[in-house]
From TrEMBL, chain A:
CDD domains in the record: TM_PBP2 (cd06261)
Lineage per the UniProt record: Bacteria, Bacillati, Bacillota, Bacilli, Bacillales
Pfam family, one: BPD_transp_1
This protein's record includes keyword Acetylation: no
Primary location: membrane
Organism: Ureibacillus aquaedulcis
PANTHER family according to UniProt: ABC TRANSPORTER MEMBRANE SPANNING PERMEASE-GLUTAMINE TRANSPORT (PTHR30614:SF46), MEMBRANE COMPONENT OF AMINO ACID ABC TRANSPORTER (PTHR30614)
Domain annotation ABC transmembrane type-1: ranges: 22-209
Domain of life: Bacteria
Its membrane topology: Multi-pass membrane protein
Keywords of this entry: Cell membrane, Membrane, Transmembrane, Transmembrane helix, Transport
Protein name: Amino acid ABC transporter permease
Membrane-crossing segments per the record: 28-48, 60-87, 188-209
From TrEMBL, chain B:
Localization, UniProt: Cell membrane
Signal peptide: none
Pfam families in the record: ABC_tran
Protein name according to UniProt: Amino acid ABC transporter ATP-binding protein
Keywords: ATP-binding, Cell membrane, Membrane, Nucleotide-binding, Transport
Listed PANTHER family: AMINO ACID IMPORT ATP-BINDING PROTEIN (PTHR43166), L-CYSTINE IMPORT ATP-BINDING PROTEIN TCYN (PTHR43166:SF35)
Topology of the protein relative to the lipid bilayer: Peripheral membrane protein
Length: 221, 247
Protein backbone atom coordinates (compact mmCIF):
# COMPACT_ATOMS: atom_id res chain seq x y z
CA UNK A 1 0.00 0.00 0.00
CA UNK A 2 1.23 3.51 -0.82
CA UNK A 3 1.91 5.80 2.12
CA UNK A 4 -0.57 8.57 2.78
CA UNK A 5 1.86 11.38 1.95
CA UNK A 6 2.73 9.69 -1.35
CA UNK A 7 -0.96 9.30 -2.14
CA UNK A 8 -1.64 12.93 -1.22
CA UNK A 9 1.28 14.24 -3.30
CA UNK A 10 0.15 12.36 -6.39
CA UNK A 11 -3.44 13.45 -5.77
CA UNK A 12 -2.38 17.09 -5.82
CA UNK A 13 0.00 16.69 -8.78
CA UNK A 14 -2.61 15.03 -10.96
CA UNK A 15 -5.63 17.09 -10.03
CA UNK A 16 -5.61 18.98 -13.33
CA UNK A 17 -5.83 15.89 -15.49
CA UNK A 18 -8.28 14.16 -13.16
CA UNK A 19 -10.60 17.14 -12.98
CA UNK A 20 -10.72 17.17 -16.76
CA UNK A 21 -11.51 13.46 -16.73
CA UNK A 22 -14.13 13.99 -14.06
CA UNK A 23 -15.80 16.57 -16.24
CA UNK A 24 -16.02 14.04 -19.07
CA UNK A 25 -17.39 11.39 -16.70
CA UNK A 26 -19.97 13.90 -15.51
CA UNK A 27 -20.94 14.80 -19.07
CA UNK A 28 -21.33 11.16 -20.04
CA UNK A 29 -23.42 10.51 -16.95
CA UNK A 30 -25.68 13.54 -17.21
CA UNK A 31 -26.33 13.07 -20.93
CA UNK A 32 -27.04 9.37 -20.46
CA UNK A 33 -29.35 10.00 -17.52
CA UNK A 34 -31.34 12.71 -19.29
CA UNK A 35 -31.65 10.66 -22.47
CA UNK A 36 -32.32 7.59 -20.34
CA UNK A 37 -35.25 9.31 -18.62
CA UNK A 38 -36.79 10.21 -21.98
CA UNK A 39 -36.27 6.69 -23.33
CA UNK A 40 -37.47 5.18 -20.06
CA UNK A 41 -40.62 7.29 -20.04
CA UNK A 42 -41.44 6.36 -23.63
CA UNK A 43 -41.08 2.63 -23.00
CA UNK A 44 -42.91 2.85 -19.66
CA UNK A 45 -45.85 4.49 -21.47
CA UNK A 46 -45.74 1.85 -24.21
CA UNK A 47 -45.84 -0.81 -21.53
CA UNK A 48 -48.97 0.61 -19.89
CA UNK A 49 -50.64 1.56 -23.18
CA UNK A 50 -52.93 -1.50 -23.13
CA UNK A 51 -52.00 -2.02 -26.77
CA UNK A 52 -50.48 -5.47 -27.22
CA UNK A 53 -48.00 -4.59 -29.96
CA UNK A 54 -46.62 -1.61 -28.05
CA UNK A 55 -46.37 -3.63 -24.85
CA UNK A 56 -44.45 -6.28 -26.74
CA UNK A 57 -42.03 -3.72 -28.17
CA UNK A 58 -41.37 -2.44 -24.66
CA UNK A 59 -40.90 -5.98 -23.34
CA UNK A 60 -38.44 -6.87 -26.08
CA UNK A 61 -36.43 -3.72 -25.54
CA UNK A 62 -36.18 -4.28 -21.80
CA UNK A 63 -35.31 -7.94 -22.36
CA UNK A 64 -32.54 -7.19 -24.87
CA UNK A 65 -30.98 -4.48 -22.76
CA UNK A 66 -31.21 -6.28 -19.45
CA UNK A 67 -30.17 -9.53 -21.04
CA UNK A 68 -26.80 -8.36 -22.41
CA UNK A 69 -23.80 -6.81 -20.65
CA UNK A 70 -23.39 -3.07 -20.95
CA UNK A 71 -19.86 -3.46 -22.32
CA UNK A 72 -21.26 -5.54 -25.19
CA UNK A 73 -23.81 -2.82 -25.93
CA UNK A 74 -21.11 -0.14 -25.89
CA UNK A 75 -18.93 -2.16 -28.29
CA UNK A 76 -21.86 -2.84 -30.62
CA UNK A 77 -22.63 0.86 -30.83
CA UNK A 78 -19.01 1.89 -31.13
CA UNK A 79 -17.68 -0.71 -33.55
CA UNK A 80 -20.90 -1.83 -35.20
CA UNK A 81 -22.85 1.36 -35.78
CA UNK A 82 -19.75 3.42 -36.45
CA UNK A 83 -19.13 1.17 -39.45
CA UNK A 84 -22.42 2.29 -40.94
CA UNK A 85 -22.24 5.97 -40.11
CA UNK A 86 -19.77 7.93 -38.10
CA UNK A 87 -20.72 7.99 -34.44
CA UNK A 88 -18.26 10.02 -32.33
CA UNK A 89 -17.02 8.01 -29.37
CA UNK A 90 -18.69 10.38 -26.91
CA UNK A 91 -22.06 9.72 -28.49
CA UNK A 92 -21.47 6.01 -28.86
CA UNK A 93 -20.78 5.80 -25.14
CA UNK A 94 -23.57 8.21 -24.14
CA UNK A 95 -26.10 6.49 -26.34
CA UNK A 96 -25.17 3.02 -25.13
CA UNK A 97 -25.40 4.20 -21.53
CA UNK A 98 -28.70 5.99 -22.24
CA UNK A 99 -30.26 2.96 -23.93
CA UNK A 100 -29.04 0.82 -21.07
CA UNK A 101 -30.34 3.14 -18.36
CA UNK A 102 -33.54 3.67 -20.29
CA UNK A 103 -34.54 0.04 -19.86
CA UNK A 104 -34.07 0.13 -16.11
CA UNK A 105 -35.66 3.55 -15.79
CA UNK A 106 -38.67 2.40 -17.81
CA UNK A 107 -39.28 -0.35 -15.29
CA UNK A 108 -38.87 2.08 -12.39
CA UNK A 109 -41.32 4.54 -13.97
CA UNK A 110 -43.82 1.86 -14.95
CA UNK A 111 -43.92 0.61 -11.39
CA UNK A 112 -44.33 4.13 -10.06
CA UNK A 113 -47.10 5.01 -12.52
CA UNK A 114 -48.99 1.83 -11.70
CA UNK A 115 -48.65 2.51 -7.98
CA UNK A 116 -50.68 5.73 -8.28
CA UNK A 117 -54.23 5.01 -7.15
CA UNK A 118 -56.56 4.53 -10.11
CA UNK A 119 -59.01 6.88 -8.41
CA UNK A 120 -56.61 9.68 -9.36
CA UNK A 121 -57.05 8.82 -13.00
CA UNK A 122 -60.83 8.62 -12.62
CA UNK A 123 -60.91 11.96 -10.81
CA UNK A 124 -59.05 13.61 -13.68
CA UNK A 125 -61.27 11.97 -16.26
CA UNK A 126 -64.45 12.87 -14.36
CA UNK A 127 -63.41 16.53 -14.58
CA UNK A 128 -63.33 16.32 -18.36
CA UNK A 129 -59.57 15.96 -18.64
CA UNK A 130 -58.30 13.84 -21.52
CA UNK A 131 -56.20 10.74 -20.89
CA UNK A 132 -53.03 12.55 -21.92
CA UNK A 133 -53.77 15.57 -19.79
CA UNK A 134 -54.60 13.41 -16.77
CA UNK A 135 -51.39 11.48 -17.25
CA UNK A 136 -49.30 14.60 -17.62
CA UNK A 137 -50.82 16.75 -14.90
CA UNK A 138 -52.05 14.23 -12.34
CA UNK A 139 -50.39 10.83 -12.67
CA UNK A 140 -46.82 11.53 -13.79
CA UNK A 141 -45.99 14.16 -11.15
CA UNK A 142 -47.06 11.73 -8.44
CA UNK A 143 -45.31 8.81 -10.11
CA UNK A 144 -42.09 10.74 -10.55
CA UNK A 145 -41.99 11.56 -6.88
CA UNK A 146 -42.40 7.93 -5.93
CA UNK A 147 -39.77 6.95 -8.49
CA UNK A 148 -37.12 9.28 -7.12
CA UNK A 149 -35.45 6.96 -4.59
CA UNK A 150 -34.98 4.11 -7.10
CA UNK A 151 -34.09 6.65 -9.79
CA UNK A 152 -31.38 8.09 -7.56
CA UNK A 153 -30.04 4.58 -7.21
CA UNK A 154 -30.05 4.16 -10.97
CA UNK A 155 -28.26 7.49 -11.45
CA UNK A 156 -25.45 6.33 -9.19
CA UNK A 157 -25.19 3.06 -11.07
CA UNK A 158 -25.00 4.90 -14.39
CA UNK A 159 -22.28 7.19 -13.03
CA UNK A 160 -20.15 4.19 -12.17
CA UNK A 161 -21.10 2.38 -15.38
CA UNK A 162 -19.71 5.30 -17.36
CA UNK A 163 -16.26 3.89 -16.45
CA UNK A 164 -16.88 1.28 -19.15
CA UNK A 165 -16.41 4.06 -21.73
CA UNK A 166 -12.72 3.63 -20.95
CA UNK A 167 -12.83 0.56 -23.18
CA UNK A 168 -13.61 2.69 -26.22
CA UNK A 169 -10.66 4.86 -25.17
CA UNK A 170 -12.57 7.79 -23.78
CA UNK A 171 -10.40 9.70 -21.35
CA UNK A 172 -12.85 9.60 -18.50
CA UNK A 173 -11.85 8.97 -14.88
CA UNK A 174 -11.21 5.25 -14.98
CA UNK A 175 -9.20 5.36 -18.20
CA UNK A 176 -7.01 8.17 -16.89
CA UNK A 177 -6.41 6.32 -13.64
CA UNK A 178 -5.39 3.02 -15.24
CA UNK A 179 -3.26 4.70 -17.90
CA UNK A 180 -1.37 6.90 -15.43
CA UNK A 181 -1.14 3.99 -13.01
CA UNK A 182 0.52 1.63 -15.43
CA UNK A 183 2.74 4.34 -16.94
CA UNK A 184 4.10 5.11 -13.48
CA UNK A 185 4.08 1.48 -12.24
CA UNK A 186 1.90 2.72 -9.40
CA UNK A 187 -1.60 1.31 -10.11
CA UNK A 188 -2.80 1.21 -6.51
CA UNK A 189 -2.24 4.92 -5.83
CA UNK A 190 -4.11 5.94 -8.96
CA UNK A 191 -6.97 3.54 -8.29
CA UNK A 192 -7.36 4.99 -4.80
CA UNK A 193 -7.30 8.48 -6.26
CA UNK A 194 -9.96 7.66 -8.83
CA UNK A 195 -12.06 6.11 -6.07
CA UNK A 196 -11.97 9.48 -4.29
CA UNK A 197 -13.25 11.22 -7.40
CA UNK A 198 -16.09 8.75 -7.83
CA UNK A 199 -17.02 9.12 -4.18
CA UNK A 200 -17.09 12.89 -4.63
CA UNK A 201 -19.36 12.61 -7.66
CA UNK A 202 -21.69 10.17 -5.90
CA UNK A 203 -21.88 12.51 -2.91
CA UNK A 204 -22.80 15.37 -5.23
CA UNK A 205 -25.42 13.28 -7.01
CA UNK A 206 -26.93 12.04 -3.75
CA UNK A 207 -27.14 15.63 -2.56
CA UNK A 208 -28.95 16.75 -5.70
CA UNK A 209 -31.42 13.85 -5.60
CA UNK A 210 -32.12 14.49 -1.92
CA UNK A 211 -32.79 18.15 -2.62
CA UNK A 212 -35.27 17.30 -5.36
CA UNK A 213 -36.93 14.80 -3.03
CA UNK A 214 -37.26 17.42 -0.32
CA UNK A 215 -38.63 19.93 -2.76
CA UNK A 216 -41.26 17.52 -4.02
CA UNK A 217 -42.18 16.46 -0.49
CA UNK A 218 -43.89 19.77 0.36
CA UNK A 219 -47.28 18.18 -0.13
CA UNK A 220 -46.55 15.45 2.41
CA UNK A 221 -48.68 15.38 5.47
CA UNK B 1 -92.21 20.23 -11.16
CA UNK B 2 -89.46 20.53 -13.71
CA UNK B 3 -89.94 18.50 -16.79
CA UNK B 4 -86.56 18.87 -18.49
CA UNK B 5 -85.05 15.43 -18.71
CA UNK B 6 -81.44 15.66 -17.54
CA UNK B 7 -80.73 11.94 -17.58
CA UNK B 8 -82.74 9.24 -19.23
CA UNK B 9 -81.69 5.61 -19.10
CA UNK B 10 -83.33 2.96 -21.23
CA UNK B 11 -82.85 -0.78 -20.78
CA UNK B 12 -79.32 -0.42 -19.48
CA UNK B 13 -77.36 -3.63 -19.01
CA UNK B 14 -73.87 -4.16 -17.74
CA UNK B 15 -71.84 -7.25 -16.90
CA UNK B 16 -68.42 -7.78 -15.43
CA UNK B 17 -67.46 -11.09 -16.99
CA UNK B 18 -70.15 -13.56 -15.89
CA UNK B 19 -71.51 -11.19 -13.31
CA UNK B 20 -74.61 -9.42 -14.55
CA UNK B 21 -74.55 -6.28 -12.40
CA UNK B 22 -77.15 -4.08 -14.07
CA UNK B 23 -80.32 -5.61 -15.47
CA UNK B 24 -82.66 -3.64 -17.70
CA UNK B 25 -82.38 -0.37 -15.82
CA UNK B 26 -84.84 2.35 -16.78
CA UNK B 27 -84.71 5.68 -15.06
CA UNK B 28 -85.32 9.35 -15.70
CA UNK B 29 -83.90 12.23 -13.72
CA UNK B 30 -85.52 15.63 -14.23
CA UNK B 31 -83.87 18.99 -13.72
CA UNK B 32 -83.30 19.93 -10.06
CA UNK B 33 -84.27 16.48 -8.89
CA UNK B 34 -82.34 14.84 -6.11
CA UNK B 35 -82.38 11.10 -6.61
CA UNK B 36 -80.97 8.85 -3.93
CA UNK B 37 -79.90 5.39 -5.02
CA UNK B 38 -80.01 3.03 -2.11
CA UNK B 39 -79.53 -0.68 -1.65
CA UNK B 40 -77.12 -3.13 -0.13
CA UNK B 41 -73.54 -3.59 -1.28
CA UNK B 42 -73.29 -5.33 -4.61
CA UNK B 43 -76.75 -4.21 -5.70
CA UNK B 44 -75.27 -2.33 -8.65
CA UNK B 45 -76.00 1.23 -7.52
CA UNK B 46 -72.39 2.44 -7.74
CA UNK B 47 -71.95 0.80 -11.13
CA UNK B 48 -75.09 2.53 -12.35
CA UNK B 49 -73.74 5.86 -11.16
CA UNK B 50 -70.37 5.25 -12.82
CA UNK B 51 -72.13 4.40 -16.08
CA UNK B 52 -73.69 7.86 -16.01
CA UNK B 53 -70.20 9.36 -16.11
CA UNK B 54 -68.93 6.70 -18.53
CA UNK B 55 -66.25 5.59 -16.10
CA UNK B 56 -67.93 2.24 -16.77
CA UNK B 57 -69.13 1.38 -20.25
CA UNK B 58 -72.63 0.06 -20.63
CA UNK B 59 -73.05 -3.22 -22.53
CA UNK B 60 -76.33 -2.20 -24.12
CA UNK B 61 -79.24 0.12 -23.64
CA UNK B 62 -79.09 3.86 -23.98
CA UNK B 63 -78.03 6.76 -21.81
CA UNK B 64 -79.40 10.14 -22.78
CA UNK B 65 -77.80 13.16 -21.15
CA UNK B 66 -79.71 16.44 -21.55
CA UNK B 67 -81.53 15.15 -24.60
CA UNK B 68 -78.55 13.69 -26.43
CA UNK B 69 -78.01 9.99 -26.58
CA UNK B 70 -74.37 9.32 -25.73
CA UNK B 71 -72.37 6.88 -27.79
CA UNK B 72 -69.16 6.29 -25.82
CA UNK B 73 -67.35 5.07 -28.93
CA UNK B 74 -67.86 8.14 -31.07
CA UNK B 75 -68.79 10.99 -28.74
CA UNK B 76 -66.31 13.18 -26.95
CA UNK B 77 -66.84 11.91 -23.43
CA UNK B 78 -64.70 14.69 -22.02
CA UNK B 79 -67.29 17.23 -23.16
CA UNK B 80 -70.05 15.24 -21.49
CA UNK B 81 -68.05 14.83 -18.31
CA UNK B 82 -67.66 18.59 -18.11
CA UNK B 83 -71.41 18.74 -17.62
CA UNK B 84 -71.58 15.83 -15.18
CA UNK B 85 -69.59 16.33 -11.99
CA UNK B 86 -68.58 13.39 -9.83
CA UNK B 87 -67.73 13.07 -6.16
CA UNK B 88 -66.05 9.85 -5.04
CA UNK B 89 -66.17 7.84 -1.85
CA UNK B 90 -62.41 8.20 -1.41
CA UNK B 91 -62.33 11.89 -2.41
CA UNK B 92 -59.53 11.35 -4.94
CA UNK B 93 -58.12 14.80 -4.38
CA UNK B 94 -54.81 15.42 -6.12
CA UNK B 95 -52.29 15.10 -3.28
CA UNK B 96 -49.53 16.99 -5.07
CA UNK B 97 -51.66 20.09 -5.53
CA UNK B 98 -52.95 22.58 -2.97
CA UNK B 99 -56.65 22.83 -2.28
CA UNK B 100 -56.85 25.84 -4.58
CA UNK B 101 -54.91 24.11 -7.36
CA UNK B 102 -57.15 21.07 -7.04
CA UNK B 103 -60.12 23.28 -7.81
CA UNK B 104 -58.56 25.42 -10.55
CA UNK B 105 -56.82 22.57 -12.42
CA UNK B 106 -59.69 21.48 -14.66
CA UNK B 107 -61.20 24.93 -15.33
CA UNK B 108 -57.77 26.18 -16.47
CA UNK B 109 -56.57 23.08 -18.32
CA UNK B 110 -59.87 21.86 -19.76
CA UNK B 111 -62.02 24.94 -20.18
CA UNK B 112 -59.12 27.30 -20.80
CA UNK B 113 -60.31 29.85 -18.27
CA UNK B 114 -57.58 32.28 -17.30
CA UNK B 115 -55.85 31.71 -14.02
CA UNK B 116 -56.99 34.83 -12.15
CA UNK B 117 -60.59 34.16 -13.00
CA UNK B 118 -60.29 30.51 -11.99
CA UNK B 119 -58.79 31.49 -8.64
CA UNK B 120 -61.59 33.97 -7.90
CA UNK B 121 -64.15 31.31 -8.74
CA UNK B 122 -62.33 28.69 -6.67
CA UNK B 123 -62.25 30.98 -3.65
CA UNK B 124 -65.98 31.59 -3.95
CA UNK B 125 -66.56 27.85 -4.05
CA UNK B 126 -64.29 27.31 -1.04
CA UNK B 127 -66.30 29.89 0.84
CA UNK B 128 -69.46 28.11 -0.14
CA UNK B 129 -68.22 24.82 1.32
CA UNK B 130 -66.85 26.66 4.37
CA UNK B 131 -63.15 26.18 3.70
CA UNK B 132 -61.98 29.58 2.51
CA UNK B 133 -59.06 29.47 4.96
CA UNK B 134 -57.69 26.23 3.49
CA UNK B 135 -56.88 27.34 -0.04
CA UNK B 136 -53.09 26.98 0.26
CA UNK B 137 -53.11 23.76 2.25
CA UNK B 138 -52.31 20.36 0.72
CA UNK B 139 -55.05 17.71 0.93
CA UNK B 140 -52.95 15.58 3.28
CA UNK B 141 -53.51 18.19 6.00
CA UNK B 142 -57.31 18.04 5.79
CA UNK B 143 -59.80 15.88 7.65
CA UNK B 144 -61.96 13.48 5.65
CA UNK B 145 -64.95 15.79 5.81
CA UNK B 146 -62.89 18.74 4.62
CA UNK B 147 -61.42 16.65 1.79
CA UNK B 148 -64.87 15.71 0.61
CA UNK B 149 -66.05 19.31 0.70
CA UNK B 150 -63.03 20.31 -1.39
CA UNK B 151 -63.88 17.48 -3.79
CA UNK B 152 -67.40 18.88 -4.10
CA UNK B 153 -65.99 22.36 -4.77
CA UNK B 154 -63.63 20.89 -7.35
CA UNK B 155 -66.49 19.25 -9.22
CA UNK B 156 -68.60 22.41 -9.01
CA UNK B 157 -65.78 24.50 -10.49
CA UNK B 158 -66.56 22.96 -13.89
CA UNK B 159 -70.11 24.34 -13.53
CA UNK B 160 -71.77 21.00 -14.15
CA UNK B 161 -75.49 20.62 -14.79
CA UNK B 162 -75.60 17.32 -12.95
CA UNK B 163 -73.70 16.11 -9.88
CA UNK B 164 -73.11 12.46 -9.12
CA UNK B 165 -72.14 11.36 -5.61
CA UNK B 166 -70.75 7.88 -5.07
CA UNK B 167 -71.18 7.10 -1.37
CA UNK B 168 -69.72 10.48 -0.44
CA UNK B 169 -69.82 9.89 3.31
CA UNK B 170 -68.95 6.19 3.53
CA UNK B 171 -65.24 6.75 4.14
CA UNK B 172 -65.80 9.37 6.83
CA UNK B 173 -65.64 9.20 10.60
CA UNK B 174 -69.22 9.45 11.91
CA UNK B 175 -68.74 12.92 13.36
CA UNK B 176 -67.62 14.27 9.96
CA UNK B 177 -70.61 13.01 8.00
CA UNK B 178 -72.83 15.94 8.95
CA UNK B 179 -70.69 18.69 7.40
CA UNK B 180 -70.62 16.93 4.03
CA UNK B 181 -74.35 16.22 4.05
CA UNK B 182 -75.03 19.85 4.93
CA UNK B 183 -72.98 20.97 1.94
CA UNK B 184 -74.90 18.58 -0.29
CA UNK B 185 -78.21 19.75 1.13
CA UNK B 186 -77.30 23.37 0.35
CA UNK B 187 -76.51 22.31 -3.18
CA UNK B 188 -79.84 20.54 -3.53
CA UNK B 189 -81.65 23.64 -2.30
CA UNK B 190 -79.94 25.70 -4.98
CA UNK B 191 -81.58 23.45 -7.53
CA UNK B 192 -78.67 21.25 -8.58
CA UNK B 193 -79.66 18.01 -10.26
CA UNK B 194 -78.15 15.30 -8.11
CA UNK B 195 -77.87 11.53 -8.16
CA UNK B 196 -76.58 10.26 -4.85
CA UNK B 197 -75.58 6.72 -3.97
CA UNK B 198 -75.85 6.65 -0.20
CA UNK B 199 -76.42 4.64 2.93
CA UNK B 200 -77.52 7.74 4.81
CA UNK B 201 -81.23 7.07 5.18
CA UNK B 202 -81.79 10.28 7.14
CA UNK B 203 -80.35 12.34 4.29
CA UNK B 204 -82.33 10.40 1.70
CA UNK B 205 -85.57 10.89 3.60
CA UNK B 206 -84.99 14.59 4.15
CA UNK B 207 -83.36 15.78 0.91
CA UNK B 208 -84.29 13.36 -1.87
CA UNK B 209 -87.15 13.99 -4.26
CA UNK B 210 -87.01 10.39 -5.33
CA UNK B 211 -85.68 7.23 -3.79
CA UNK B 212 -84.60 4.42 -6.06
CA UNK B 213 -84.06 1.13 -4.32
CA UNK B 214 -81.86 -1.39 -6.08
CA UNK B 215 -81.30 -5.03 -5.36
CA UNK B 216 -79.37 -7.60 -7.32
CA UNK B 217 -78.83 -5.34 -10.33
CA UNK B 218 -82.47 -4.36 -10.68
CA UNK B 219 -84.54 -1.40 -9.60
CA UNK B 220 -86.97 -2.93 -7.13
CA UNK B 221 -88.92 0.13 -6.13
CA UNK B 222 -88.93 3.86 -6.60
CA UNK B 223 -90.97 6.58 -5.01
CA UNK B 224 -90.97 9.76 -3.01
CA UNK B 225 -89.34 9.46 0.43
CA UNK B 226 -92.81 9.50 1.98
CA UNK B 227 -94.04 6.62 -0.19
CA UNK B 228 -90.82 4.69 0.04
CA UNK B 229 -90.14 4.88 3.75
CA UNK B 230 -93.72 4.89 5.03
CA UNK B 231 -95.57 2.79 2.47
CA UNK B 232 -93.12 0.51 0.71
CA UNK B 233 -94.92 -1.61 -1.87
CA UNK B 234 -92.44 -4.41 -2.36
CA UNK B 235 -91.68 -7.16 0.14
CA UNK B 236 -87.96 -6.86 -0.65
CA UNK B 237 -88.02 -3.16 0.20
CA UNK B 238 -89.73 -3.84 3.53
CA UNK B 239 -87.05 -6.39 4.40
CA UNK B 240 -84.35 -3.87 3.54
CA UNK B 241 -85.96 -1.11 5.58
CA UNK B 242 -86.49 -3.46 8.52
CA UNK B 243 -82.85 -4.45 8.37
CA UNK B 244 -81.76 -0.82 8.39
CA UNK B 245 -84.13 -0.24 11.34
CA UNK B 246 -85.65 2.82 9.82
CA UNK B 247 -89.09 1.59 9.03
Amino acid sequence: MPSFSHFFNILMETKGVFLKAMLLTLELTVVSILLGIVIGLVFALLKISNIKVLELISDIYVYLVRGTPLIVQIFILYFGISGIFLLPDFWAASLALALHNGAYISEILRGAIQSVDKGQFEAGRSLGMTKTLTLRRIILPQAFRRALPPLGNQFIISLKDSSLAAFISMNELFNVATTLGSNNFDEMTYLLIVAVYYLLLVALMTFVVNRIELKLAVSDR
Amino acid sequence: MNTKEMIKINQLNKSFGDLHVLKDINMTVYESDVVCLIGSSGSGKSTLLRCLNFLERKDNGSIIIEGNEVNPRTDDLNKIREKVGMVFQNFNLFPHKTVLENITEAPIMVKGINKEEAIIKAKQLLKKVGLEDKSDVYPGKLSGGQKQRVAIARALAMEPDIMLFDEPTSALDPELVGEVLTTMKDLAEEGMTMVVVTHEMGFAREVADWIVYMHDGKIVERGTPEEFFNHPKEERTREFLNATMLK
